[in-house]
Design goal:
The protein has ten helices and nine strands. It binds phosphoric acid mono(formamide)ester. Phosphoric acid mono(formamide)ester binds next to helix 2.
Amino acid sequence: MRSFLGRDILSLKDFERSEFFRVFEVSEYMEPIARNRKNVDMLKEKTLVTAFYQPSTRTRLAHEAAMLRLGGKVTGFADPKMTRAGDFYRESIKDTVRMLEYYGDVIVMRHFQQGAPAEAAKWASIPIINGGDGWGEHPTQILTDLYTVYREKGRIDGLTWVAVGDMRMRTMHSLAYALTKFDCPITFIAPPEMSLTDEFKAEIKEMGLNFKEAEHIEQVIHEADVILVEPVVQPDYTKPRDERKGDVGMTPSNYKITKELLETKAKPDAILLHSFPRMDEIPTDVDSTRWARYWQEAFNGVVVRMALLALVLGAME
Ligand code: CP
């Protein structure tokens, strides 16, 4: 297994199977710290820089919370309009990160341009963590989701997944890459205009993923051990900011997980994940059912970021 020390976390495409389990192992070690709401001094001499060029609630604040739990410091920006990248200068990624690298020891970046964190990693002498890039990838979210499955089901291999939502989503790409390292068949369900591209399907097939596509969640929900949902009513992730204008419509039943659907068709021990934010694809009356695990997922979002920060900054081997 490669060392995590000093490493960029840009994509799950190149993650080795043993590296997933190392992240889970370190996450389990971190879990009591977060559960007991303790702060320790593991990273007391380190600073996290957050560079968020697109809105975020969870990814930015979970990284910040993780750093604070480990005794580190946090600086950065959540609104690029208040930086030189977002004004007249339109400062480049290169020039920006060559400044930011002197302000801290690791950078977590979210950007509307696919590949922006990889571009940052070319120029920065400190690790870059991809906090979501356009329609590209969202590796730390899917590490969180896999860890949630690992904790809830005790394993990853041998579980059947159903992924519902917009397949252009960065989470879906990271998920598909990750599952190529496990024995996990998966069915993808998306509106035709939001389905996986032929190019991406050819790539994950070549990488050995056992997948199929379906039109309606009702056709396959009975097979699922893990149901992962993303919205189909959602913003354009290639824009810095996409405000809601007027009526955006409702989620068609093909892509909606209702309480009735779960009660009549889902396995009793299946688990339901959604990284949030949500629209109406999971109505709120599902929240208190036996299937919902998205609140555990939210907690694990801090735990997994603690593990990643400790690993890339060398506090854990
Ligand atoms: N799931 C997720 O990435 O949430 P945020 O956009 O709030 O970071």
